[in-house]
Amino acid sequence: MKEPNWIIKGYSTDHFSDEVIARWGKYNEELQENAGLIHCQMSILAQLCLENPNETNDIMLFLGEALDRDGKHSGVADALSISFLEWPNLEKLSLNFEVPENVSSVVKEQWDRFGSNA
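Predicted structure:
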């Protein structure tokens, strides 16, 4: 059985989850409760971006770096495209915060494919 792409590249979704907990677990205990469930954690990160602007730039940069390590067609990219902010919300955030191009690209592609039905 072939291993998923994101494990072959050496950056597993478990590693991503551990980093999320280490960096932002103090802001939301649900990150720890959902260890390993990166779609749930991605949704919580979106909530943190909206509710705790002091962390938004760091979260965005982290997501950009995670995509660089994990690749555009990976578990992290999948969770970002499905469970993070929808494009209109991310676009509004980008007026005040730096959103890496690879993050906006993944979210925008999902929005362009499915729009508000995603």
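Summary: Residues 1-9 have pLDDT under 50 and may be disordered.
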